[in-house]
Recover the amino acids of this structure.
């Protein structure tokens, strides 16, 4: 009986997180464009989401996890992590000096995962 009550409480908490995350995704959807195209994996199981992102070659990371990792885990939010700048110094033989070369590297998507 106690396990059933705890399971029901965890499911209710996860549902409220899912609804809250869904609202945040809907509200923020039109405010910023993604740096690179990525499949929408919100609502998928964590395993399926990882497989979908890997199949598309999209870098990703779990930036927030709630609940027990051994439970049933689903992605509740997905955000673009933007770009980082890599700086390289290359020697220009013609000018006899180093030149600074900046390259923008996409960091992929960050996933929020809730496990029940």
């Amino acid at each position: 009986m106690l396990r059933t009550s705890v399971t029901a409480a965890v499911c209710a908490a996860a549902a409220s997180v899912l609804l809250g995350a869904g609202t945040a995704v809907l509200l923020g959807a039109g405010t910023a464009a993604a740096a690179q195209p990525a499949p929408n994996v919100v609502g998928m199981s964590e395993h399926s989401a990882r497989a979908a992102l890997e199949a598309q070659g999209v870098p990703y990371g779990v930036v927030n996890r709630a609940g027990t990792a051994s439970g049933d885990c689903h992605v509740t939010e997905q955000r673009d992590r933007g770009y980082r700048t890599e700086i390289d110094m290359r020697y220009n033989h013609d000018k006899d000096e180093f030149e600074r070369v900046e390259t923008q590297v996409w960091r992929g998507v960050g996933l929020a995962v809730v496990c029940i």
Remarks:
- Residues 1-32 have pLDDT under 50 and may be disordered.
